[in-house]
Amino acid sequence: MPVVAAKDDREHQPEGEVWVGIRIEGTESRRRPEVIRDAVIEAGCEIREPDPHPDSKISAVHDPGLLAWLGSAHQEWLAAGLDENPGQDRVVPYIFPHPGLLDGTDPFEPVATSARAGFWCYDTMTLIGPGTWRAARSAADVALTAADLVRNGAVAAYGLCRPPGHHATRKAIGGSCYLNNAAIAARDLVGPEPVGVLDIDAHHGNGTQSIFYEAPDVMTASVHVDPARGWFPHFLGFESERGRDGGEGANRNLVLPPGTGDREWLDAISSQLDWLTSGGIGHLVVALGLDAAAGDPEGPFEVSPEGYREAGRLIGLSAVPTVFVQEGGYDLETLGGLVATTLRGFEEGRASAPG
């Protein structure tokens, strides 16, 4: 299977996150892609750098204002002297345009650099460092290059994207995500047939859902922990969310309780695949989160490596050209092996798929 990865992913160095007001180390580290690279190379894959793509591929998914801010946010932060006073060297918001604050009025984009961060970012976990934009833009090129390979005849391709993307919405970053790589790939693959997005990260792909919530040509399916049990993104990701207007019926969430193991998780994935393929999709984008694995520090599920291999096999059996896009997964001891295992399962399933 072709593997696409960018050396620029090392440039993203958030140096932690702000969690309930405290700066902590965080788990979205630059070591994540390193352990995945090692595992897929050991499995026999060759890694290629992404091809550059025009900005129009990104603005097809994200608001141009967000992109302009992301591209200059850290430089503006330094120019405002916020690294010296109060001494914060990463871009992090402190005030947000909350509906209760606005009371129905449209928000004004603030002039103050410190407040602009809250206009474009919905949490305090998603810090911006000097190389964040370069890494995020390269990750989008990774996803687009993997999509190109599949569109041009590859059965599947894997995009090793860092930073991850499925929590980023059209107009906001959050959840350690800056550009929604899976959504960018999906939008680029839309043709005469709709595209399906299957998100198997332990957390709801809220950004992907919101980007395509009114879109009839991208079907979005997510299998994740129930937000009502206290898990991110907390405010949405429920089974009642089915799309709106032209996208009514094109979004499907299946929520699972903490502690879910292989059988229930795989049943949910199988159900989502059946739903997507019954919709006549021409391509599938898999938001590949590995944080559903037992022992992952950010996920509440108990999925085994065998469960991930079977998930890959089920995806392969669907016989739909597939782009894998890396999302979560934070146990550095097991992450690389889980990626290789899932991709190996896909190849096994695809080899035995009808036709």
Written account of the structure:
With 355 residues, this protein is of the alpha/beta class. The chain folds into two domains: 3-53 and 132-351, Histone deacetylase domain (Arginase, Chain A, 3-Layer(aba) Sandwich); 66-120, no CATH class. 35% of the residues lie in helices and 13% in strands. It has helices at 31-42, 56-59, 64-79, 99-102, 113-120, 132-151, 181-189, 206-211, 262-278, 305-317, 335-351; strands at residues 3-5, 17-19, 22-24, 47-48, 156-160, 195-199, 218-225, 251-256, 283-288, 322-326. An eight-stranded parallel sheet has the order 4-1-5-10-9-6-7-8, with helices on both faces. Strands 2-3 form a two-stranded antiparallel sheet. Helix 10 (305-317) links the parallel strand 9 (283-288) and strand 10 (322-326). The longest helix has 20 residues, at 132-151. The radius of gyration is 19 Å and the shape is globular.
CATH C-level label of the largest domain: Alpha Beta
Characterize the main sheet.
8 strands, parallel
Q: List the strand order in the largest sheet.
A: 4-1-5-10-9-6-7-8
Q: Would you identify the CATH H-level superfamily of the largest domain?
A: Histone deacetylase domain
Q: Please name the CATH topology of the largest domain.
A: Arginase, Chain A
Q: What is the structural class?
A: alpha/beta
- Tell me the number of structural domains: 2
- Total strands: the figure is 10
The helix/strand series, from N terminus to C terminus, equals EEEHEHHHHHEHEHEEHEHEH
Number of helices: 11
The radius of gyration over CA amounts to: 19 Å
CATH architecture of the largest domain: 3-Layer(aba) Sandwich
- State the low-pLDDT regions, or none: none
